[in-house]
Amino acid sequence: MKKLLQDLKETSMSAITNADSIDVLEGLRVKYLGKKGELTAILKQMGALSAEDRPVMGQLANEVRESLSSSIEEKRCELEEKMLEARLRSETIDVTIPGKSVEVGKKHPLNTVLDEVKDIFVGMGFTIAEGPEIEFADYNFTKLNTEEGHPARDRSDTFYFTDDDHLLLRTQTSPVQAHVMETQELPIRIISPGRVYRKDEVDATHSPMFHQIEGLVIDKGVTMGDLKGTLDTLMKELYGEGTVTRFRPHHFPFTEPSCEVDVQCFECGGKGCRVCKGEGWIEILGAGMVHPKVLENCGIDSSVYTGYAFGVGLERLAMRRFDISDLRLVYENDVRFLSQF
Ligand code: DAH
Description:
This protein is an alpha+beta fold. Helices cover 42% and strands 19% of the residues. It has twelve helices and nine strands. It has helices at residues 2-18, 22-33, 38-43, 53-90, 109-123, 137-140, 175-183, 224-239, 292-297, 314-322, 327-332, 335-338, and strands at 127-128, 134-136, 167-169, 188-197, 209-219, 245-252, 255-264, 281-290, 306-313. The chain has a seven-stranded mixed β-sheet, sandwiched between helices. Strands 2-3 form a two-stranded antiparallel ribbon. Helix 5 (109-123) packs across helix 10. The N and C termini lie far apart (91 Å). Residues 172, 174, 214, 252, 255, 286-288, 309-311 line the site of 3,4-dihydroxyphenylalanine.
């Protein structure tokens, strides 16, 4: 039995010394010291010993157990230290390697101009209103004095959802005028930017989706002079103090009188050139005094209140502002193009 114990000690010690991982070491502990391990198996034979030998063997067995346990513990510490070292070595960071630079994005030119326009109007006491892009024909057309049969309602221009043509993608931001008049308290002073949709083929100046900014002011005693002053201020703030504006008679169903607002060509100063197509002026927006019928359609007493309205294409403003010649560039989101602004 003594021999058995000594053999066990020898073989197990060398196995422990050679163990190269915590798992292997744990396997050895179970193999030698576990309940069904080799030492236990030897101890089971103690019963066969004489009363004299028993304590001697018992003591020897205990010594073997203790030295195995302490060797395993020592080895465990050693292996853990090695693992930690290896991990530290593999996880070291070379702080001298150049970092990956983070690309910082910036505002899209449309948003830059939109934010400027908002600031200009908020500075003049306007608030920002929102309206739905899916709209009733009633709001997009009828309330705005564009009765059924009017060419602007044609199916070839408008995206209708229903066969009876009563639901559509708004073709202009003007229906927000009707929503605001019906729901807000007077006086009204709002602008409303948003997407509008028309059945246009994509080219350098057209897109089936684009953006407009609607404006509406209603109060007692509002005149065409207020309209001119406000829009002249807008143009000067956007394009510079020296900007010259022109108000040219026009027709819109929802305003009377109506006008279009042009700015003098920045390129030629009004002489006529390629940019203004020889005109000397560049058309920017439509405007006018809100038609009394529109006021009445929206529940406002036209004998007491007057107002003005305007609608301007955001793309046109931005393209003028940044000298962009093709509308498609604005939507393609090519970073090489956008990073210039
Ligand atoms: N809604 C018009 C359009 O899309 C633009 C417009 C013109 C809006 C005159 C107005 C306005 O509010 O008074 O062409």
